[in-house]
Amino acid sequence: xxxxxxxxxxxxxxxxxxxxxxxxxxxxxxxxxxxxxxxxxxxxxxxxxxxxxxxxxxxxxxxxxxxxxxxxxxxxxxxxxxxxxxxxxxxxxxxxxxxxxxxxxxxxxxxxxxxxxxxxxxxxxxxxxxxxxxxxxxxxxxxxxxxxxxxxxxxxxxxxxxxxxxxxxxxxxxxxxxxxxxxxxxxxxxxxxxxxxxxxxxxxxxxxxxxxxxxxxxxxxxxxxxxxxxxxxxxxxxxxxxxxxx
Length: 246
Hints:
By secondary structure, the chain is α/β, with parallel strands linked by helices. It has helices spanning 15-22, 26-34, 51-63, 72-76, 103-116, 123-136, 196-206, 210-218, 222-234; strands at residues 12-13, 41-43, 46-50, 82-83, 94-95, 140-142, 145-148, 162-172, 182-189, 241-242.
């Protein structure tokens, strides 16, 4: 089961090894990772998976922190509509260039932004909750992107559901699975567990190709970044995007 290491203490697995580990077929593994449900990274034409992250992903499902993707009925069902970005995200939610250079200071700067906008009630709580999640499983999934969120929802701490984005053109070491710097940090502040799947799925679809990341990095300011994201969102299947409030 154990294969080569890539700068980390825990081993990596192939699709075949992961399918055996989860006791499912390889096609299901490929479907899950392609949809952004499973934490993995593509090296050339091959997917690789860090065992510790898979174990945490399984624990999250058992705790109800993430949806139970291995439920066959859900896997074969139609995708649920996803709320449009504008319901939780505006240009003022963007930090065009982070001053932070480390993982902890990135989290602190993003939490400060959310607090200044009145999106959270307690900045200290939010910093701690985001770091707690990072300690369980890093949010940087490779390709220069990280999707930060708390381990569990705390509706009383979030004034309204939101997304905040911080950009670092130089990049920050965020313990990404592919070992590369992270440039885009999306922070989700959601009130309810049910919103987690639609938002993470939407974002993984929007940034399925490196070109989308490069377009955001090339945008000159917050308004331009917002326009790039809006245009990327419009390219999704319109039947899977609905207007409304989260």
